[in-house]
Predict the 3D structure of the following.
Amino acid sequence: MARQSRYKKIVVPLDGSRWAQRVIPDARDIARMNGSEIILVHVFRSAAREYVDQLALAGQEGQIDAERAEIAQHLNAIKRELEAEQIKTRAVILEGGGVVEAICAFCQQEGVDLIIMSTHGHTGLRQLLFGSVARKLMECSPTPVMLIQPDKQSG
């Protein structure tokens, strides 16, 4: 009798930090064991987003597009590496202000079975002040969240 795959869709939220990206090997291994699809997700929050009108007036609206293109290039590089290892992979850029809310909504919409993320990312001092994205994601999402603590020597 064939073994039923436990995880069909795995979301890996990436924020551009090396910390966040360190979960890729774990996600790859779990995906390989389960025949899962990995969905690389980045929530796009441009630093210039709040000033779009002012940037448009200043003729610099291309800054946001360039930022988005750089993120897409980064996600697609990881996607190609995983696909080279025969792992079905998608790269998705979500638009939105709230990282946690965007990821939760996406996971519900997609029927995601598992979220794998690092306990550290770009939040830095904000994490101490407002609580971690990982903790908030665990509170809002019905999807199981696997937290990977990056090895302290490599950070």
